[in-house]
Amino acid sequence: MPRLRAWALSAPALLLVFLFLGLPVASTLATTFGDPAGPFSQYAAFFESRFRMTVLWRTMEVALITTAVSLVVGFLTAWVVAKAPPRAKSLLIIAAVFPLLTGVVVRSFAWLIILGKEGILNDTLLALGIIETPLQMLYTEFSVIIAMIYLFVPLMILTLVGVLEGIPEDLTDAAASLGATPAAAFRQVVLPMAVPGLIVGSVLVFTGSFTSYATPQLLGGERQMMMGTFLYQRAMVTFDWVGASTIAAIMVVVTLTTVLVMSKMARRLNPVAG
Amino acid sequence: MRQKTHPLLIAFAALTFAFLIGPLVIIIGTSLSETSYLTFPPEGLSLKWYENIFEISAFRRTMVTSFILAVGGTALSMAIGIPAAYAMARYRVQLPAFLGNIYVLPILIPEIVLGFSLMKSVAIGADFPIMAALFVGHALLVLPYCVRVVGASLNAFDFSIEEAAVSLGCPRWKAFFLVVLPNVRAGIIAGFILAFITSLNDVSISIFLTGPGVSTLPIQLLAHMEQFFDPTIAAVSVLLMFVTVGVMAIVERTLGLTFLTK
């Protein structure tokens, strides 16, 4: 009886996921293997096309740089937040949550104003006499990466504040009382305990930036096509649904592999579980 | 013994927060300018761009659509997500643990892949009307928030209270509504509001499902930006920031904002 009740209560949610996620995504993946020239011909075409590979590598590059920078900036900032006195800490958390909950369109728009040809940064640099003609910053990989870092640093900070707060201060005190220098205590005690959290944060940022759409659309445009904008263009501009499905399948494989491999690694590197 | 944080680190964190908040301050500034182009600091002060939002019918319409969608989609998702979260917490032995992973699939699968697949299979394949497809897409998108935030509250709930009610003769369904739900109210409110803001800000799913006559606010903003680059967009952005502030106030009063660091 409890078993039946448990399944009955779960059924509507499971059905929603099955009908509107399971089936549609499976159908997208299935289309990519239906080519008369052979099941993998769509993928062969993708990996042989110089243009498509450029898009894939650019997306990888942007996602990796965004992850690396967010990791460093997020970790150092989260460190300060975690060690701050309670009142300052809640203010800093508010300051990180606010951009996180503000929409991606609004946050990308801010960088359009800042980086535009007649934008604030160019105006300032011109006024200061540092440059003589406005720099082309929009629609470059640089503008996409800056906006992505802006997008994901709050997420990294909030993830890592939780992780760092979970490391008891007694441990570093113990290390110090046993003669460890602060640097050694950090390297040998704090860092190993923070590694699983660093991995979780990195996975969130990497998959988020690898699959983003609005930011590369607004700040990269046609010139800096990324996987997300490329998928949209194939699906809704050229109506090449099989091509779009192939891009979708590659995105699914990359993100799922990243999540699975990294979470396994996070478990293995967790000194508490091990 | 509390270790002192190095002043250089503090300076670095200050720079990070300036980087995080600065661009939003710039948006607020540009929205107040009298000029018809985006400039910061604002030249003159006026609220005319805020009035302009309501003069553009596309903004009025899409605001209403986005609001209905966010409230309706989240309500639908809660209606099916709460029982699922309850089953997971209450019948831990009877249900396989992987069910929890199924409910978070909408976060795990890239949103843009989900949007594209819904367009292909549901909007066109199953011939759903635009609004219905958007509803389903948004309900799906926010399901992980509903199940997990409510689930976190349910895991902290002592089910023996419910058993007490049942053993005293209260029907199970009644015990659920009178005993369980009031005890996890904070989680439901916080989950609802986080789901609401996620739906309100969504681009990647909506961009595939909006169609002639029906659009959402973020999609309308994107479209507007491609044609006009005036302070109206900044004004809409500021309105959306007000919504964010409201959302944060509610989360702070229910689960506390530190919930988001867990």
From TrEMBL, chain A:
GO terms for cellular component: plasma membrane. Signal peptide: none annotated. Its main location: membrane. It is found in: Cell membrane. It comes from the Bacteria. It is a multi-pass membrane protein. InterPro entries: MetI-like, MetI-like_sf. Keywords: Cell membrane, Membrane, Transmembrane, Transmembrane helix, Transport. SUPFAM superfamilies: MetI-like. Residues 56-262 form the ABC transmembrane type-1 domain. The chain crosses the membrane at residues 62-82, 91-114, 142-164, 185-206, 241-261. The keyword Ribonucleoprotein does not apply. One of its GO terms (biological process) is transmembrane transport. Pfam families: BPD_transp_1. Belongs to the binding-protein-dependent transport system permease family. CysTW subfamily. This is Spermidine/putrescine ABC transporter permease. It comes from Pseudooceanicola nanhaiensis. The lineage of its organism: Bacteria, Pseudomonadati, Pseudomonadota, Alphaproteobacteria, Rhodobacterales.
TrEMBL record, chain B:
InterPro entries: MetI-like, MetI-like_sf. It is a multi-pass membrane protein. The chain crosses the membrane at residues 7-32, 67-86, 98-118, 130-154, 175-197, 233-251. It holds the Pfam family BPD_transp_1. Residues 63-251 form the ABC transmembrane type-1 domain. Keywords: Cell inner membrane, Cell membrane, Membrane, Transmembrane, Transmembrane helix, Transport. It is found in: Cell inner membrane; Cell membrane. It comes from the Bacteria. SUPFAM superfamilies: MetI-like. This is ABC transporter permease. It comes from Pseudooceanicola nanhaiensis.
